[in-house]
Protein: Acyl-CoA dehydrogenase family protein
Organism: Paenibacillus mendelii
Amino acid sequence: MNRIIDDYIRSGEERTRADKVEKLAARFSERAAMHDREGSFPFENFADLHEAGYLKITVPQEFDGDGLTLYDLVMLQERLAYGDGSTALAVGWHIGQILHLRTSRKWPEAIFAELCRSVVSDGAMINTFASEASSGSPSRGGKPETTAIPTEGGWLITGRKTYSTLSPILDRFVVTAYIPDEEGTADFLVHRTDRVSLVDTWDTLGMRATGSHDVVLDGVFVDKDMRLSEKGIDDGGGWFLHIPACYIGIAMAARDYALDFARSYRPNHMNEPIAALPYVQHSIGEMEIELRTARSLLYAAADRWDREIDNRPALKPELGMAKYVATNNAIKVVDLAMRIVGAASLERKRPLERFYRDVRAGLHNPPMDSSVLHTLAGAALAEMPVDRGNS
């Protein structure tokens, strides 16, 4: 029988790509414990991703990228996270935003084209640094304290950004800044200079190897052309599905570890492994329900987003629900896996305790649970009421 992770492969081409990424994931898995323990950034993983062509999977084909779909992205990210959640989440922000820029076309064409060519030729990556300690999550409307002051030929940007994933490796990034003269915010493409410094602040419970340190900008000059337009097309934010794909991949790894343990572990008072015990089989069945439900929603949402191009903004409730269900179900799957393995699951030499810590980070990635519930409620209340006549 095929593994459950293969259920959504639809073609030989997808199988080939999946096999290639699984080899990367196996390599990253061997390094994951060390980087988690040290809280270090896995530069070697990103060198491997560049060499394998992974950084360009969502770059448009016109720039020699692969131009893959959201469905493809979900499938590959899930597999990458099976090996190392931190690496998958970090690179997901890059390939996801490239997909978003490709479909929304909200950047000036010349700037986007230069970025794409740099990704393909040099392995450049991109991320947006919007969060700040004082303003909270930008997804909840926090106003940045980072400022952009006009100067001759451009802007001077000063401020400090938190949760700056990929910051150790990026040579350029997007910063959201407040413009006092306009009493509004804008995005700016910043190239790294000596006016940009990294503060080693990332020391967290989970996802310890994403390099999400603080970035300090001290009067960084940004050319006037690097103020990014926000016009573009509303693509519904489908690219955020890289997040639930990551956490489902971690849950899948925990599930498989627990299955292997249940098949092989036989206490000396038993004649067969614990997989024969009814309560263990019950727990396995619960894992399957949580995992299969989440994956069916995740892949259905990705497929609809790919196909329903003109309807993408209307898919936001479904996209949010896919993230909500995937993240919360992934946490349940890892918990069940640890219950099957028992106290041994807490040992640092086993990966389950890392999976447990990593998977909880999904609760703090956008969209947040409360935002998803609010969106779903709004969509329900906006429906036309049924005309029941005089009944």
